[in-house]
Specification:
Mean pLDDT: 91
Low-confidence stretches: none
Strand order of the largest sheet: 2-3-4-1-5
Structural class: alpha/beta
Strand content: 15-25%
Radius of gyration: 16 Å
Distance between the termini: 34 Å
Number of helices: 7
Length: about 160
């Protein structure tokens, strides 16, 4: 995925799943860095931080402007989507972001929660299904099952 930007030009997504400490963020950053070298515009952000900015934009009646601003990036890397609180205001703007980028620009999402647990992210089951449906239609899914790198490092020390 990192050696070509074809998937980005086709507005495909990349989903990286796995437990804490297996390198999801590191992998997403490495792919993002390589995409930048290939000419793509990439924006990395912790999902909780972006959701807070989206909520503020909604409160200021500027959500559409902010979503359009994010559209300048070919790829958004949303790190740790599982840490978004199960709050309707937060998940609503997250869903709007996913819907806004659907078939237009790519998302790279890291999560320690598999899709079957996304009802813990989205309080509304219909919204969870709709978000997953939009994400997986044009996605490559990577599931990392290794042990935590940080934990193995601490055991060795």
């Amino acid at each position: 995925m990192a050696n070509t930007i074809d998937w980005v030009q086709q507005a495909n997504n990349l989903m990286i799943f796995g437990p804490s400490g297996v390198g999801k963020t590191h992998t997403a950053c490495a792919i993002g860095h390589r995409l930048i070298e290939k000419g793509a515009r990439v924006f990395f952000t912790p999902t909780t931080s972006l959701v807070q900015k989206l909520q503020q934009a909604r409160r200021d009646y500027k959500l559409n402007d902010y979503l359009n601003k994010l559209s300048r990036f070919n790829v958004l890397i949303l790190d740790d989507i599982g840490y978004v609180k199960k709050d309707e205001a937060e998940t609503s703007v997250l869903f709007e972001l996913i819907a806004h980028r659907y078939e237009n620009q790519s998302l790279v999402i890291t999560s320690n929660q598999p899709f079957k647990e996304w009802d813990q992210i989205f309080p509304d089951n219909i919204m969870a299904v709709a978000a997953i449906d939009r994400l997986v239609q044009h996605s490559t899914i990577i599931n990392i099952t290794d042990d935590s790198f940080r934990r193995s490092q601490s055991i060795q020390n």
